[in-house]
Amino acid sequence: MATSPEAHAYDYAQVDVFAERPLEGNPLAVFADGRGLSTQQMQSIARETNLSETAFILPRAPEVERTSGVRVRIFTTQEELPFAGHPTLGTASWLYWNHPIFRGADEITLDLAVGPIPVRFPTRKDDRHGAFGVMRQRDPDFGEPDHDCARMASLLGFAADDLDSSLPIQMVTTGNPFCIVPLRSVEALGRLALPRTAELRSYLDNCGAKFFYFLTQATNSSADWRARMQFYTGEDPATGSAAGPAIAYLVHHHRVDSGETTILEQGIEIGRPSRLHVSAKSVDGSVTDVCVGGRTIPVAMGRFFLS
């Protein structure tokens, strides 16, 4: 393919995150070296890839990366995010395979806008099934669980009894704030069609959340819980930055034991099955050690040419 001599080339890889096999999970574009790109160019490239998120690695001196981590910026098609789960895990996995210093390391730290996020690789197995990594997220902050369930059901297009009244609606964040909405059944979750209304946006703003995350106990599945997250004009196959708040919420409300690894599935309804391994601990009434893990599988490589 002919390109102009003035074009600047930017290599990228595409990986499937929280996937058990290729073409499942949540796809991510990882740019190996985003130096020289402006914020606007990064945003435009993210729109061009048209994936849930696109990550840009900004290499620094080895001594800086050893002490402060690898600098990474994350963009959706609409905006830059201070933190997102599947870009963190997917980018760390790409570094695990390719970084000149951290290739094959037991732990790699990403320096994100939200702060340093370490990702562990607990096994050395790196085969056709990709790499399994676990990120530790920030300790959670919880909003007040004082939502009106009847009003919430009406705003979301559900019947009142679709919501699980044994659990509260609550904002939880480990870096990206979600309003967690517990549903009574997988059948109700399957009917989710989130309306795009100003009233719903205002509701999120008022409770301090950016998105809704819908959660229910899984049935007829090897997973324990199932989730969905619709945002912008589509749906996210797997949301690591929401899975952390979700397990913190479940441990906080005594639905999952402290320290127990739970399997959360997402993306089933849109044909991108994803599997997230989540755990958190309750220590003296506070939730800590929020961990989200899964497998990353490389699926493609490419190059962008920008003049």
Put the structure in a nutshell.
The chain has 307 residues and is of the alpha+beta class. It is 22% helix and 36% strand.
Summarize the topology.
Layout: E1 8-17, E2 26-31, H1 39-49, E3 53-58, H2 62-68, E4 70-75, E5 80-81, H3 85-98, E6 107-112, E7 115-120, E8 131-136, E9 141-142, H4 149-156, E10 170-173, E11 178-182, H5 186-190, H6 198-207, E12 211-217, E13 225-231, E14 234-236, H7 240-252, E15 262-266, E16 274-283, E17 286-306
Parallel strand pairs: 2-3, 4-6, 11-12, 13-15
Antiparallel strand pairs: 1-2, 1-17, 3-4, 4-5, 6-7, 7-8, 8-17, 9-10, 10-11, 12-13, 13-14, 15-16, 16-17
Helix pairs in contact: 3-7
Given the structure, what is the number of helices?
A: 7
Integer average pLDDT: 94
Query: Uncertain segments of ≥5 residues (pLDDT<50)?
Result: none
Strand fraction: 35-45%
Task: Summarize the amount of helix as a percent range.
Answer: 10-25%
Q: Termini, distance in Å?
A: 15 Å
Please outline the major beta sheet.
8 strands, mixed, barrel
- Reading side by side through the largest sheet, how are the strands ordered? 1-2-3-4-6-7-8-17
CATH topology title of the largest domain: Diaminopimelate Epimerase, Chain A, domain 1
Q: Based on the structure given, which CATH architecture of the largest domain is correct?
A: Roll
Number of discrete domains = 2
Secondary-structure class: alpha+beta
SSE run: EEHEHEEHEEEEHEEHHEEEHEEE
